[in-house]
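Dear V.,

Thank you for sending over the compound details. I've combined the ligand you provided, magnesium ion, with the protein sequence from our construct and run the structure prediction for the complex. I'm sharing the raw inputs here so there's no ambiguity about protonation or stereochemistry in the SMILES, which I know was a concern on your side last time.
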Amino acid sequence: MKIPGRRRRPAGPAAEALPAQSADVLPDPGVEVLPDPGADALPDPGADALPGAAVDAVIELAAAARTYPGPPPVHALRPTDLTVRRGEYLAVAGPSGSGKSTLLNVIGLVDRPTGGHYRLDGIDTGPLAEADRTALRGRRIGLVFQAFHLLPYRTATENVMLAQVYLATPRDRRRTEAVDALLAVGLGHRLDALPSAMSGGERQRVAIARALVNRPSLLLCDEPTGNLDSASAARVMDTLDALNAGGITLVVITHDPAVAARAHRSITLRDGQLSEDETKLSTGRPR
Ligand SMILES: Nc1ncnc2c1ncn2[C@@H]1O[C@H](COP(=O)(O)OP(=O)(O)OP(=O)(O)O)[C@@H](O)[C@H]1O
Ligand SMILES: [Mg+2]
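Below is the predicted structure of the protein with magnesium ion bound, written out as structure tokens.
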């Protein structure tokens, strides 16, 4: 398995040395478990690309909006245009309640926009049936949440394997891929640790490994360092940097100026309205 950014791979126990996994692991409803998209179910980006799609654009929002029905209705995301290109590292800032998670959930195909259009990798997601949206998400997007969402009685490796539970991949290969993902985030020495025996930063890196294991091209993180001390946060930021250097497109919601400083580009939301940080644009590191 090729995971971007695994250059920092530390030495870790070989996959064969791992104990056999216990009975079938059942997904926890609180865990982001993605069903097997099935190659046939996936729209072909080339075939379905709409005219006018920006070259190399991963995310294209055109007047995309999301209003929660009331009463009174909440205009959590006002009509928004946003293009994110392959390999970009975008930070999203803004006060509490400004619409950051709403935006991330739209981009992550968790929620549908209530207005406007969203193209992912050139595919217009509007007309897609729910199963096709889920398939697209499972194949191309990794999601990392602030609260980790790890199962407490499963090891780091088993937690990562949960993201593949519906895939047709044989268990041995799932384990090898989970170990690879954990190596890629610098956790080769914690493969069999339970979340309760890990630091906050290590838990968050398990959550990142779980988001990576299906090899997404787009990684979306909601406050990945929000619950972490500064040393753990720095380690998570290094992990994100390495992944981005390996080619993954990153969108990271953060209140942390240290995280925003590492991004190429940053945007701010206020009352559901997006603005681009022009300073960052001129000093960023566009690829
Ligand atoms: N399911 C919902 N139903 C109704 N309103 C909602 C729902 N989810 C979010 N909202 C409202 O939408 C607005 C944007 O919420 P959102 O969660 O996107 O904010 P946020 O910027 O992520 O905030 P935080 O920094 O606190 O996580 C808020 O006013 C929130 O109360
Ligand atoms: Mg939020």
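A first observation: Residues 230-245 form the longest helix (16 residues).

Warm regards,
I. M.
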